[in-house]
Amino acid sequence: MTHVRFNLGTILTLTLATAVSYLVLFAGTVLAAALLIDTSVLEQTLQRPVDFTDYLTLAWITSSLATVGGAIGSGLENEETVRAAAYGYHPEPGGWRDEKDG
Fold it and tell me: Is the pTM here over 0.70, yes or no?
């Protein structure tokens, strides 16, 4: 029973972390789109009046593509590269430890 709870806890933790990360990405994308994309340019592209839902749709598409692209990219890395990225780089005053080791 403990094994099942551990697996359930892991699944819930990963699901929550993924959902929160996606929401942060989505919110940042909405903010960036609202600040950087001029309404007149978007209206000209869509050939109709623009409202806030158009920015939400754009942010949803962008965030979803970025999430899928990141998942595919991380899936292409081998385990050694992932471990080196996660555990190998510890800043020291003289530079990166991996650079000294060769």
Answer: no
